[in-house]
Amino acid sequence: MADKRFILPGELCVDKVPVEIATLLGSCVAVCLFNRRHSFGGMNHYMLAKARADERPNGKHGDHSIRTLVKMMLSYDPEIRNLEAQVFGGGNVTEALINNGVSIGANNIVIAKTILDEYKIPIVRIDVGGLYGRKIHYENWTGTVEVRRIEKSAASAEINRKKAALRDRRIRVLVVDDSPIVRNIISTALSQDSGIEVVGCAENPYEAREMLLEHDPDVICLDIIMPKMDGITFLKKLFLAMPKPVIIISTVAQEGSKLREQAYAIGAVDVIDKEDLALYQGMDKVRTVLVSKIKSAAAVFLQKKSKEELDAI
User: Fold this and answer.
1) What pLDDT, in 10s, does the model give residues 64-75?
2) 158-308, what's its fold?
3) Which residues pair with 14 in a beta bridge?
């Protein structure tokens, strides 16, 4: 029996022993490499084509991820001519993934083709684009990939329903943070926007749970370090039972931190370092940064995740 491995955005898996590697793709892309001579392979899962100029490349960036995948394959067998590739994903699954007229998915597809061509690795199968997501199962010992489509219809209907509902009312926001000063600053800043209503402020996830059921917020602003239950644990519980758009606001969620990557992997819509809000320097920065993010997050389509998926994060 082959081992099973589910990889998350930013991860990859290469092994010479039989492993069934699985992942879920929307606009993300997975490249499956297979060594024809020795019958082993690996797969990655990346979110963006390249890092920004001010970012350090990592596994979520296609150019870095594909090069790392190739290097790991070559560490077992240096003959690159033994490799072949399959490319999947890059769907245009939501309007929110359009950036200056070009979809993130399209950019992810281009970078896969570009890097593989650079290495002269032939692409023997490509299943990309479209208006749907994909569930991928890759047998790394045979090179066989099973692709199951996740149609866009349910996601589109939910997004359109949310947008229609929000046209007639304000966006309901729940603020969860153990600091009363921070709760007051964030709630006061958000309340100054006519399109946002702060329906509650909670000191910890236990208080948040009651307010969640009572007020049904559209967006949750969530701290990580809190008494009784940390924000990451609460985020997992949300996605297991009642997914909500969550914006993490925490001092321990700096760019490049493992907690930031973990929050995104679970399903957080955005992650903000509290230092970037300049909380104790007035309301202007808080409004400037948070209001637009909350309005974007309110219409995001989310789905429950299984306990197995969440346990793997």
Assistant:
1) 999 999 999 999
2) Rossmann fold (3.40.50)
3) 42
